[in-house]
Amino acid sequence: MRALRSVVLPTLRLLVWVVIAVALAVLAFRGPATEQASGPSEAPPVDLASPLVPVSLGTVSNVVSVQGTVAADPATPVRATAAGTVRRVLAAQGAAVTAGQPVLEIRSETERDPVTSTDADGNTVVTPREPLVTTTTVKAASAGTLTAMTALVDQVVAVGDTVGELSPGTLSITATLTQDEQFRLLAPPTTAEVTVQGGPAPFTCAGLALGAATSTSGTDPSTGGDPSGGTSGAPGTTARCSVPAGTAVFPGMAATVDVDAGTAADVLTLPITAVQGSVQNGTVWLAGPDGGDPVETPVTLGLNDGSLVQITGGVAEGDQVLEFVPVPDDTVVDGGMGGFGG
């Protein structure tokens, strides 16, 4: 029993520690090598060659869809057309008027030279004359509603003074265009299709015109009129067209405006990613012969639908072109300059 305690148990304990030490050594030194051997030996190769696309026949439908807003057409000022005093106000604020309807009368006096005569004794007699009185009628330039009439009877006015404000009572659709959309509408049509969500059926908006965004109000600021008829004062280009009379829409409503600028069928096309430039002229890179460097090639362009662009010259059907315009190499070249003081 004494031998068991003094010899056998210490020996077994020593063997256990030896086994643990060997196992730790195997895990420490052979584990990473085994794991590396079991994993992939190297990363898969990466194909850095630029993909190619063929010049192919297709259809380009240049429909520009933008988000717009229903807006009241701006009011126009009613101006005095003669200098004098207001004789009569013929149309009050809020009155509906027709084009050419009188809204105001202005009384003007023009001094006349006196009459010179000779009396029976031969003396010169100067007789003053009454001034020449004329009445000028100010008429409405168009049909609409007088949203303001500030003129008062006997008020003195000068030519060009604003005496009222005339709202046409019509609506338009206005939409701000991005730069890309402007380029796609270099030759816009005269109409657009408008959809007002939850409103009437899509309708044709006539008189489409592109131009600079107007100021926040189409009215003369001196009249203090309601500026709600204006459009956003943000810079840029807007598309504007007239809402047909009787269409059940109201200012402030959102609308989708689809402008169809043309369709070209069975024409040569390329993705816009393959062409540098999007209007009139561009550049593509044809696949080099025998796998050589791509060849920079000028092309002429037609319609653009935002995904495809029509190619009108410079390449032929089936030509292979780089799918993406090459990016200039911006690698920094070491000029070999030494340090300061070198």
Automatic annotation (TrEMBL):
Gene3D superfamilies reported in the protein's UniProt record: 2.40.420.20, 2.40.50.100
Molecular function terms from GO: efflux transmembrane transporter activity
Cellular component terms (Gene Ontology): efflux pump complex
Transmembrane segments: none
Highest taxon of source: Bacteria
Compositionally biased region (Low complexity): 214-225
UniProt region (Disordered), positions on chain: 214-239
Protein name (Swiss-Prot/TrEMBL): Multidrug efflux pump subunit AcrA (Membrane-fusion protein)
Organism of provenance: Klenkia taihuensis
